[in-house]
Amino acid sequence: MTSTTPTRATEDPAIAPAVAQALATVRRNAVTFAGSYPDDTTRAGRYPLRPAGDGFGVGANRGWTTSFVPGAQWVAWELSGDDGMRDAALAHARDFARRVREGDDLETHDLGFLYSLSCVAPWRLLDDEDARSAAILAADHLMRRLLEPAGIIQAWGDLSDPQQRGRTIIDSLMNMPLLTWAAEQTGDDRYADAVRRHTAQLRDHILRPDGSTFHTFYWDTETGAALRGATEQGAHDDSCWARGQAWGIYGFALNHRALPDAGLLEASRRCADYFLDRLPEDGVPFWDLVYTDGSDAPRDSSAAAIAVCGLFELAGLETDAARAARYTEAADGILTSLITLYAPGQSDESDALILHGVYDLPKGVGVDEGTLWGDYFYLEALARRTAGPSWRPVW
After folding, report:
1. Is 198 helix (H, G, I), strand (E, B) or coil?
2. Residues marked as catalytic
3. Count of CB atoms within 10 A of residue 200's CB?
4. Which of 186, 225, 238, 269 is most deeply packed, by most CB within 10 A?
């Protein structure tokens, strides 16, 4: 295994304290949780251990969010050169390799989130062959969810479940980079073809004419016909769930970079413009974009952090200088707001990197809490801002 030199953050006095605080929290959490995993969200500012359930013990590697822990550790190592972060993340990579080989909780499209951050990262950074083979195996599991003739990757659950069959969600855009990477590694175009077909279906159907997005969309499993949009976590079927819109900004941009497809670039622009036009004064969205200034609805800082990463990505791909400048300026402004208004202060007792996120408000889950994904994307946003264009995320 050949180690690479981490990309150290450039000195940026405007946000250096925020980077230092975030890195300190990631280090502290690595000690607190060691080889176990925290739950999806904090409870009153602190992450509990992931609860037992479905045959798994307390702190086990299950669910879709555990990879944000090593994901943050890899970014922390790149920014700081702290080998303790590298070693902690490598230990998690071994556990993720075990998980995919033993078949633990793999019935999800979120294998992209899980294995890009846990296993593609150590392959990219350290040429770790065991991590590479585990990530390819995860990509093969994800390919089993490709439904014909629609050409979409099913989101959740057993493929035979009639309630889930034919459904995908906008989050799936962020899972496609695992298949793109697998195509590059193996030379097998099946992976890339699945990405092309799936992203085209979301571009044409999950993105509405006004630039907003459905959270989830159904296709007929017999004919492949597009059926209807809906939501699981938004205010209502015709509203625009803020985190989903942020996934659209980032996900369409990432998949354009991989393919490329001018239609995906335009889809990312449309998502970005809709999102930016509906932000409250401080730049951090309410949990659904139907809410505006004056509402007492909860904010979702995690949607803001995802959007910052997506806007930076989009700006780097943009063919129009004025649009690129707008997206960069917007990303900088939202990130500044997260730093000044949403990151824990010295007096806050929290082990989250940013506060005031929302997991699933309709179900009352993780409302006004820190979230593992919000923490990861906030740290990625800081890395993009401080290290500059030379730094690339794992996606």
Report:
1. helix
2. 110, 171
3. 18
4. 269
Tokens 């009639």 belong to 162
Looking at the whole model, is its pTM more than 0.85? yes
CA distance 264 to 88: 36
Residue 115: Cβ-neighbour burial (10 angstroms; 0-12, 13-18, 19+): buried
Per CATH, the number for 17-390 is 1.50.10.10
Quick one: which of 15, 2, 11, 91 has its CA closest to 331? 15
Tell me how far the alpha carbon of residue 186 is from its chain's centroid: 24
> What's the N-to-C CA distance of the chain in angstroms?
21
Mean pLDDT of 112-138: 98
- Tens of pLDDT, residue by residue over 185-234, are 999 999 999 999 999 999 999 999 999 999 999 999 999 999 999 999 99
Q: Is the pLDDT of residue 9 over 80?
A: no
* Dist. CA 365–CA 391, nearest whole Å: 34
Token pair 């500012």 in the structure block, residue: 45
Q: DSSP letters of 244-263?
A: HHHHHHHHHHHHHHHS--HH
Residue type, 131: A
In 272-284, which positions are buried (b, 16+ CB within 10 angstroms) versus exposed (e)?
A: bebbbebbeebbb
Token couple for 8: 């150290």
Peptide bond into 70 cis (omega under 30): no
The pLDDT tens digits of the residues spanning 298-331 come to 999 999 999 999 999 999 999 999 999 999 999 9
Q: Would you say residue 12 has pLDDT above 90? A: no
Decide if pLDDT at 6 tops 60: no
